[in-house]
Specification:
With about 400 residues, this protein is α/β, with parallel strands linked by helices. It has three domains: about 70 residues, Arc Repressor Mutant, subunit A, CATH 1.10.10.10; about 130 residues, Nucleotidyltransferase, domain 5; about 160 residues, Nucleotidyltransferase, domain 5 (2-Layer Sandwich). Helix content is about 40%, strand content about 20%. It is built from twelve helices and 16 strands. A five-stranded mixed β-sheet has the order 6-5-4-7-11. Strands 14-13-12-15-16 form a five-stranded mixed β-sheet, sandwiched between helices. A hairpin with a 4-residue loop joins strand 8 and strand 9. The radius of gyration is 23 Å and the shape is globular. The relative contact order is 0.14.
Length: about 400
């Protein structure tokens, strides 16, 4: 990832530029208060190197030192820990949907300080970029917010996070949109763009259900079906920036046409639009809503239950594919479609169990996350890019 710069770049410089110094700040951002001794041991750095970097970060206002605590047993000098100063900098994040843009202002500890939503009247790049610029301008004036450093944007589809280009976003109707450059010019902020599910995976690794887990997959179900992968200490992005397109595995035997141009995709059975299409094809239910379908399913309506059984079957096959291919410790299931999870939970589990190979069967963790958390994830992506210095193609993450 790297920033698309505005005509007048506003991104401040990191006070430390060495890999070790950046790793120290990243560790403190993700892990909270930590002593210098622990930092040295965890990162494999010498005590003098840790002391030099942390002194610079303290002088620059990024870190603060906690009160020294006596060592248990009274042996040795009291130790103090280092913590991040939350108001030193702030980052903005935006989640883009076909109906609205959702924004969040996040401090240096990843906490949301303010959030706003703006409806879209169209999904053209011009409309979306204008809405993002207006929304982020408002968020940037949040009382008590630290200096705004950069902006992250999460969008569905095939996104080149190095150039900030939305190469293909079928739900938005986009192809080859230089979103990072357009947003940077409109907002005046250095901007990083990434696939929205990959950004959410990053935030769950830093602060959420993926924290401390060796490997995990984050599967989202809603307008589309996406998948982010955290493997061997880093977010997996694939050789060409395309990975985790679970929604476009051909696992629905009905072979219905998908928005991507293929047929039989998981999204043709499990996306919100697909579920409504199948429900409304039932006699007498041509105008049914998802809320009404939930009530009918609870009352035992068999045609309605059959629709959700199909959802569970197709998603169960998809999760089995994830388990068999990468063997994660857990699969986190999220997205707006998670509200329907109880209606297909058992069928999904049965299908996944039938198709997962041996020990590949892993736990499934349902995790409802509102779109404000997706916006926060985009802000976390901007924060990581700033702290690590970003990366070019072929580079690994600076710190795990």
């Amino acid at each position: 990832m790297r920033f698309s710069q505005a005509s007048t770049p506003q991104t401040p410089r990191m006070p430390v530029t060495s890999k070790g110094g950046r790793a120290i700040l990243t560790t403190l951002l993700r892990g909270g208060a930590t002593s210098r001794v622990e930092l040295a041991a965890r990162l494999g750095l010498s005590q003098p190197a840790v002391t030099r970097s942390t002194r610079t970060l303290i002088e620059a206002g990024y870190l603060a030192e906690t009160e020294a605590v006596p060592v248990p047993g009274g042996r040795g000098r009291p130790t103090s820990s280092l913590t991040v100063a939350p108001d030193r900098l702030s980052f903005l994040g935006v989640k883009v949907t076909t109906e609205e843009v959702i924004g969040a202002a996040v401090d240096l500890t990843g906490q949301i300080r303010a959030a706003e939503r703006t409806a879209l009247t169209a999904t053209t790049p011009e409309q979306v970029v204008g809405a993002i610029a207006s929304l982020t301008s408002e968020l940037g004036h949040t009382p008590g917010l630290g200096p705004v450093t950069a902006l992250g944007v999460g969008v569905t589809g095939d996104v080149d996070s190095i150039t900030g280009t939305a190469r293909r976003a079928p739900l938005m109707g986009w192809a080859g949109v230089p979103l990072g450059r357009l947003v940077a010019e409109a907002s005046g902020l250095a901007t990083v763009v990434d696939n929205d599910v990959r950004a959410l995976t990053r935030a769950e690794w830093w602060y959420g259900a993926g924290r401390g887990v060796g490997s995990f997959a984050l599967v989202t179900v809603g307008a589309g079906v996406g998948c982010g992968l955290f493997l061997n200490g880093s977010i997996y992005e694939g050789a060409h920036g395309v990975t985790g397109e679970l929604g476009h595995l051909p696992l629905d035997e009905r072979a219905l046409s998908c928005a991507c141009g293929a047929s039989g995709c998981v999204e043709t059975a499990a996306s919100t639009a697909a579920i409504l299409r199948d429900l409304r094809a039932i006699d007498g239910l041509s105008a049914i809503t998802l809320a009404e379908a939930t009530e009918l399913a609870a009352a035992g309506n068999q045609p309605v239950l059959a629709v959700f059984d199909r959802v569970g079957t197709v998603l169960g096959r998809a999760l089995a594919c994830v388990a068999n291919l990468v063997g994660p410790d857990r699969i986190i299931l999220s997205g707006e479609g998670i509200a329907l999870f109880d209606l297909y939970r058992e069928r999904l589990r049965q299908t996944m169990t039938a198709h997962a190979f041996g020990a590949a069967l892993c736990e499934i963790v349902p995790l409802p996350l509102p779109f404000e958390q997706w916006a926060r994830a985009a802000a976390v992506t901007a924060m990581e890019t700033f702290v690590t210095g970003g990366k070019k193609k072929g580079q690994a993450d600076a710190a795990s």
